[in-house]
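[09:14] KT: can someone run the structure on this one? pasting the chain below
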Amino acid sequence: MIVAGAGTGKTTVITRRIAWLIEQKIAKPDQILALTFTDKAAGEMEERVDRLLPYGYVELSISTFHAFCEKILRQYGAEIGLSRDFRLASELDAWLLARRHLDQFSLDYYRPLGNPTKYLRGLLTHFSRAKDSGITPDLYLAFADGRRADLDAAHADDSATSEVARVTELAGAYHTYQKILHENDMLDFGDLLLFALKLLRERPRVLSEIRRRFTHVLVDEFQDTNLVQYEIVKLIAAPANNLTVVGDDDQSIYKFRGASLANILQFQEDYPLAERVVLTDNYRSVQTILDHAHRFIQANNPNRLEARGALDKRLVSHREDVGMVGHLHLPTLDEETDAVAREIVALKESNPDASWNEFAILTRSNDAAVPFLAALERHGVPYQFMALRGLYTKPVILDLMAYLRAIGTPHDSPALYRVLSHPMQHIPANAVAELTQFANRKGKSLYEACAMSSTHHFLHESVSSVVGSLVARFELFRTAAASRKVSELFISVAHDAGFVEYLNHLPEREKIESFRYLEQFLERLKRFEAVHEHPVLQNFLEEFRHERDAGEEGSLQFDPDAGPEMVRVMTVHASKGLEFRFAFIVSMIDQRFPTTERAEAIPLPDGLVTSGKDQDSSDDWHLEEERRLFYVAITRAKERVYFTSADDYGGTRKRKISRFLMELGFEKPEGKNVQSADPFAAQDEPLAAFEDNQIVLHLPKQFSFTQLSAFRTCPLQYKYAHILKIPVFGKWTFSFGKTMHNALHKFFQLWIERTGMRQESLFAAPPAEVKPNDLPVSIDELLTAFAESWQDDWFQDDVQREQYRTKGREQLRAFYAYLKEHPASPAYLEQDFTLKIGDAVVKGRIDRIDFVDGGVEIVDYKTGTPKKDGKLEIEDKEQLLLYQLAARDILKLQPVRLTYHYLEDNSRVSFIGKEDDLFDLQEKICDRVQAIRSSSFLPKPGFHCKFCDFCEICQWKQS
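[09:31] RB: done, structure tokens below
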């Protein structure tokens, strides 16, 4: 167990240990399992390992707990009755699913007549907490039965009887919810953990295979594990127990998500022989900040490792500068927000080397941040509010949703009003007013007024023309909306209605943010399509209305490293794992930080959960968690940390300062005095007006062949596709190609299973040769795989869709006949690799690798037009040459043939790269990556422009 305090390099320690295990040949890369909690943390760990390892690797399992559990359930879940193709339900998916099936729940206590869905979100959270604690529906029902059996009917009072009825209702609702999930072939996030634990406990053969594969287990942020996650870790690590956990009990702040502080406090008892290492060298903060933080967290004793285990966790800074910890108290909230904004401006001017990214305003809640955003706006300070909710309230999403509502419900006048008022339409405000007045006079909807405007001639001719074009466009979209998937319609509207072009002309900062929101909303639409039989606009609008009525604002994903440079405004919870040169912890008043204890809407009943309960349920657990949260806030700062408070937050009484400030030794200063050696007082100079400083585009640290090819073709195209990630029109050819690839993957996966070849072993002997006309998988199974893999996107109409469906079946029948005459020995499918070329990290995936005489053949499927002359240009060979490099250097195989297999006629073009070819490719990749890193992404027009997804918004396109 590595106890690693704030800023001591937890991620560095765990990634260096992974690299050391590999370099010392103690473990192969695919024998290491590293688990963490967020995709960002897993990605960062993987990137650091990429930099540490000199060559690359085949498969290194660095992932979140949920992603790992999903992977093993898809591989082995059939052994406990799960489908391989189960769908994963997000929190929103689960809420919508439960709402659609609300009539199946037998609810009384939790179903008020006036608002039957009032407790639905609370119930789902309740079920999630039960799953985090390892409580299945059957266990919950048994617990409820036990409570009912213990009830002495003769002496029970009304409250006891009511409580038993309530618990019984909850147990039944949990059982019903799980039944609904199973009927829809869905698992929620809690199920991933719960079923993975069930699999490992009840199927010894599976557990043995996973233990044999993963000989070394590492867990990052161990203090954030819940009871089920810890049980999974213990099962996989046993009996060798090559287990490393890294964590800090003082940063355990996720009890509301099910995290159990008991795990890290219990670890030493579970593993009495485990070595314990304490990291105290801090590379982030000045000593002044560390001393304040350490002195403050002592108030949580004795429920700390330092108090229980005779540890010294006092952090020692490796920085020599003094820094500052200060408190500013002001009369009103307005003055507090203004003082914070002014101090940020002053610090930026006095520290010209500082970027906006090095400033953070940390709040206890999202609501508390809003006044500070207004102050930053007034002072011209660029900022990013990193709330985890609020996608649906972003202007670009409001604009596009208004357009979609106007298409789906043409008489939705408020939606159409937003469309007409948008600057993109260039309709004067007085003309919009005339339209609304005409509609009111005539008793018509705004849409009807627009349709009548050309015949009633009350608009200027030029405006009438614009309105008429808009009405005509709505009619076209309305026709498409009846049959097209909503995601396809969304992208069509974004492009054809001019939104993408409009956004592309915004200042760079707004452009980046807007396209980021579009990308995230498109993911929301695709989740809708995954669970709906008829995923058209009308059905989405109905679901979206229910979602908004329930108070849902849409989840947001933020990457603080993605740029552009801005002051980060976020909750303390969101700041975990980040660091800033200057941190402002604001609104430090009583009942705001620490908050008053808010019990869960529907807590788990006493006695249901027993393991780990003692350490998590002390009388002061809420205050201790709030104190750990404040400790996290303080230790985000490198150089200066400011606490701010005020008397007046709009209520009738003056507010007391936070008890945490008093525990730190600060008392409420008189007037505007600042308790630090470096006071900052409100100033009277005019507000600063900052220019839109140069945008820093944060580039990927890993590259794919697709990215490198896009940059070679046109740097601006690369920026649009891989940095801004502008949603693009799909192509039915891509849908067809993906269908064929997935069908063949399923086909050969069955083939490998039946011929006894296990892909897990790269060094296993080749399987027995398959005899001609005796294939291990039938043609019917291949066609079934095709039907299951069908991608229904972007076909122009049903006629074209059926043409390609027929074409696919014909091609697969011909492919099957080809295999009968030319049997294959498939060894690896969809084989991932990470290749280090100079300082560039290239990731890829090889369709298929076959054993052949003298080595292996690498096969890549093509659904496009075959090469009639069998000749390939050097650019055409690059992809397979990259695969040859990976197979030789990372997979340690000997490629003797590289083949493009054209499914249209089963023709094949084969070659093998010479050493000079491979060397030239490596030089090209290094040069291209360096060019990307230093690029201004200028356009490179040419013949390829006519095939570019972004030609309609590119002023440099070659016609």
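[09:33] KT: thanks! Residues 670-689, 758-768 have pLDDT under 50 and may be disordered.
[09:34] RB: yep, looked fine to me
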